[in-house]
Write a sequence for this structure.
């Protein structure tokens, strides 16, 4: 697509290069150009500048008077491929059962896995595509998608093949993550070692061999997988060239952040429960902290302490965690609102967490995540707005006028 955007009230999130993630004070720095133009050629940002320098071009143009133009959000943590809703489990929770109790009774991830097992690959794809299209309309311009509702070789590969077809057909960049160690299947109860062998020595070599995954993940949590499993998964990932992006500290803290960051994980995600050692470990590493405020809202658990992370000079990304159990929403506009009202981030810090920093958390920083010449013109054009703060201010609403992909 070729298009000239004119009279942009504010062009938000400009960068010169994408060499370094934003942390500490820089997390709150957003470069803005008032009254700007942008030239999009062959789907890429070709140039931008003040309206006074706007070139005369024979291409379609679009007037953005009163509106902001921003890079689309980058959703660096989702479980967008799944079989069905688990709204029944929400009812159970509203009748007093906890997320963990439901899981222990065979609900939760195992519930999703048994539903996925009987679903055709085509149906899984069709449903996932509809969810992806909805996410794009809400402003998501790049996305990471995990497996983890298969838990057998066949079904994990089925999920990853669905993600591969989405990659081939989607208008936005997609990264895929192998999450075989998401929950222990019932038939492996008391045989966790055997399941870990299956994940690392049988599933992973086949998946990596077919190029079906970009990253590896594990749900490291009390009642799920422990530090030994975490080590095993990260080492196995290393052996096959897959960096780790891991679920840690959702309900408890027992050293997973330290181990993952010391072992070079790209990101540690969730972090609702943190202790001093966790902060120290992250501050001394290159690992990106990822908060998932939609999960906190839905499960009514603590929010990732975003304010503290930023104050401790740790780079923060924010993603949706879109999944049928703990976050049935891909709405990053709402996540933006929660980041400000519940995690005490400034609009600028939250914006960087959802765009620029999140692009690093899925290694997409050279094509998405900011307004930069040569990057993809995946853009949000807002409704008429005063400034960036209008997005978190109108929380639960949408300030998106349209998106360009
Ligand atoms: O990120 N915590 C582990 N995995 C997902 C939820 C999985 C589910 O409940 O289906 C999460 O919250
Ligand atoms: Fe998750």
């Amino acid at each position: 697509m070729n298009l000239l955007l004119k009279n942009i009230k504010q062009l938000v999130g400009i960068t010169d290069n994408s060499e370094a993630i934003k942390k500490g004070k820089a997390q709150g720095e957003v470069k803005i150009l008032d009254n700007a133009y942008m030239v999009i050629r062959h789907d890429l940002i070709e140039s931008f500048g003040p309206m006074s320098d706007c070139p005369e071009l024979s291409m379609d143009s679009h007037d953005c008077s009163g509106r902001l133009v921003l890079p689309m959000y980058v959703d660096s943590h989702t479980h967008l491929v799944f079989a069905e809703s688990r709204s029944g489990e929400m009812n159970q929770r509203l009748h007093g059962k906890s997320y963990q109790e439901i899981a222990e009774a065979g609900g939760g991830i195992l519930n999703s896995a048994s539903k996925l097992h009987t679903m055709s690959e085509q149906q899984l794809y069709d449903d996932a595509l509809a969810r992806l299209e909805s996410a794009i309309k809400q402003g998501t311009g790049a996305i990471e998608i995990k497996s983890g509702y298969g838990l057998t070789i066949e079904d994990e590969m089925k999920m990853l093949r669905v993600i591969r077809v989405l990659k081939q057909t989607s208008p936005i960049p997609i990264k895929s993550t192998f999450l075989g160690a998401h929950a222990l299947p019932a038939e492996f109860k008391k045989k966790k070692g055997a399941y870990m062998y299956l994940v690392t020595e049988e599933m992973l070599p086949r998946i990596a061999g077919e190029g079906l995954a970009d990253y590896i993940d594990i749900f490291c949590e009390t009642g799920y997988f422990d530090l030994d499993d975490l080590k095993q998964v990260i080492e196995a990932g290393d052996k096959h060239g897959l960096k780790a992006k891991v679920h840690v500290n959702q309900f408890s803290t027992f050293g997973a952040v330290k181990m993952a960051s010391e072992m070079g994980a790209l990101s540690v995600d969730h972090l609702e429960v943190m202790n001093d050692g966790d902060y120290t470990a992250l501050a001394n590493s290159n690992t990106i902290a990822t908060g998932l405020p939609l999960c906190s809202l839905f499960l009514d658990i603590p929010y990732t302490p975003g304010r503290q992370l930023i104050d401790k000079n740790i780079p923060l990304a924010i993603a949706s965690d879109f999944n049928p159990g703990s976050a049935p929403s891909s709405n990053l506009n709402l996540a933006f609102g929660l980041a400000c009202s519940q995690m005490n981030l400034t609009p600028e810090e939250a914006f960087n967490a959802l765009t620029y920093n999140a692009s690093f958390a899925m290694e997409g920083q050279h094509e998405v995540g900011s307004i930069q010449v040569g990057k993809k013109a995946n853009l949000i054009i807002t409704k008429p707005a005063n400034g960036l703060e209008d997005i978190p201010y109108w929380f639960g609403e949408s300030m998106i006028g349209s998106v360009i992909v």
In short: The mean pLDDT is 98.
